[in-house]
Amino acid sequence: MAEYLLMRARRIRRTPFSDRVEAAGVQAYSVYNHMLLPGRFTTAEDEYRHLKTRVQVWDVGCERQIEVRGRDAARLLQMLTPRDLRPLMAGQCAYTPMVDETGGMLNDPVTVKLAEDRFWISIADSDLLLWVKALAYGFRLEVDVTEPDVWPLAVQGPKADDLVSRVFGEAVRDIRFFRFYRLPFHGHDLVIARSGYSKQGGFEIYLDRGELAEPLWDALMEAGQDLQVRPGCPNLIERIEGRLLSYGNDMTRENTPHECGLGRFCNTLTAIGCVGRDALLRVAMDGPLRQIRSLAIEGEPVPACVGPWPLHDPTSGERVGQVTSAVWSPDFRTNVAIGMVDLRYWNEGTRLQLEAPDGPRWANVREAPFA
Amino acid sequence: MAEYLLMRARRIRRTPFSDRVEAAGVQAYSVYNHMLLPGRFTTAEDEYRHLKTRVQVWDVGCERQIEVRGRDAARLLQMLTPRDLRPLMAGQCAYTPMVDETGGMLNDPVTVKLAEDRFWISIADSDLLLWVKALAYGFRLEVDVTEPDVWPLAVQGPKADDLVSRVFGEAVRDIRFFRFYRLPFHGHDLVIARSGYSKQGGFEIYLDRGELAEPLWDALMEAGQDLQVRPGCPNLIERIEGRLLSYGNDMTRENTPHECGLGRFCNTLTAIGCVGRDALLRVAMDGPLRQIRSLAIEGEPVPACVGPWPLHDPTSGERVGQVTSAVWSPDFRTNVAIGMVDLRYWNEGTRLQLEAPDGPRWANVREAPFA
After folding, report:
1. pTM above the 0.95 mark?
2. Which of A126, A200, A246, B140 has its CA 20 to 30 A from that of B9?
3. Touching A: B residues 233-252, CB under 8 Å
4. What's the CATH code of the domain at B353?
5. In a domain, A70, yes or no
């Protein structure tokens, strides 16, 4: 597939890390929440190897925060998601499918509970802020809903604990998965959570002071020299292997959380107040008619996947699903993919005909992720 | 400024015209409403000359539509905008600043009134759909709010009437500005409005059948051979000269319509029901404290403008505004720009110090656009 340049404008916002990212030799960007998201420094394969063995620093400032603060903050949060948020304590994060009144996915953010009456919603690529603000307005809730200037910086890879502890102290090793501590950097406390968009482990540092961006970046790069730290970005191969979903790619407003395999994050019966609850109750009981699956695609490395690729019943020719993310995996020696497959076809090992742009191929359904 | 490649994924959606756009040699894309927007085929300057003398076909499929249909459709539309929509008749379009409860700009779409109870909102780059859906939900309105598959194709330039009439018939010459006709193409009626994001005149064809995309593109290209028709895209130079604002670039949620110079599209007193009305009534009376202006920036061609460039009082050094779009204009032999300037400094001819990335420059305020 041909490659194209990205037009630049203020509308596609820079992060406070962008100058460092460019000095480090970024080659390609994606656009995410109207903001630059680094896409490649060397090659996806090289970065994949490095991510799985070392440690990387990712500018994910494009994970914008929605801050909800005030007396009705918890009520408003519960309106957004079928996950029961009552057990969530301050200091915890929760992966929260967020749905509209039909149960369709609007975003799949991490909710960070800062205090009983204060949350950050760390969003994927949709302007969820507009949904949250309008609900607060429509229901006359006593909350303030804003987009604060907070730019997450991710540190991912097996050496992440070593690196982050050198900058923030040994306490970071005690941070449990999806918990956060507030730890000082240049005299300013930063929220540091054990989380991130890879299966290799690591942290997300919620930078809320732009002027500390370059000192933080530099401190991590210097402290990690002998760990071979490098700038990086979410890696397509690693995320597809691990079946980390991407909003807009693998799921859209057309899909319920149950179709996305996110039923385990839904407590629809007890999530009283969720605006999608009525629509999701039956889905929660009956289960979905199609669902996210991993797939192995046979043959040579596939071309870049930029649109749904149809999956067909090889006998009847009927369309029974689609692939939405696919790439060659060096470790698994096959093309790994994520797709949505109809109920009758979603069992392990089902062999489907894939309509790829370069011709038909065989795709084999897997119930578990690759990694 | 260095150039970067655009990472591709399903999340950055293609339009039904994308294959033709790529076959025609597009070099750069922007991302707009999670969709590809062509950014350059040759050079901005070459395309500017051509746009001002000939005719171009633009894939603006990224101008997504929000369809609002039902008994409360007109009520919901009025909730969105301080423009009084009561005079708008079916068959008309209206430029409609859309604001939140604080009067901050959420989008600046064209509203297309298809029928008394059916509208399309042809949006700029924000997920306004989420705002509209949540208001409909919060106020229990009897409306259906959807994102239909409608992809506008613009035909812009002085030869636009000649070209479009060859494909759709002489009736198109009778379409008045911001009105639309329904005219058949391959047996299917398409909404064709006299509108578009240039000052050169032309049409926007609202294609609502994907399979007609390539026949429509080809028909226009074939019919316009002797008119020297070319594929094109919104031109940065031409739009800055003409002071066509760009949401996300020249205005954001931080700005009221009055700051954006859009007061003439606001009828805040009579726009009963607009959710931003309370906030805007005082602004409508007193006027804004800062406002959009054109500026001429002295010196050599400026570098690409990707962030606000501060404007200072040359005596006190105080920050008194910012430039948000800027480019060299071959016709005006100066750098043309759009910015927001504080009240005390916004009069014609005021000379301000601009902090450009390559050093300080003089900027001269203009009340009128260049073109």
Report:
1. yes
2. A200
3. 246-249
4. 2.40.30.110
5. yes
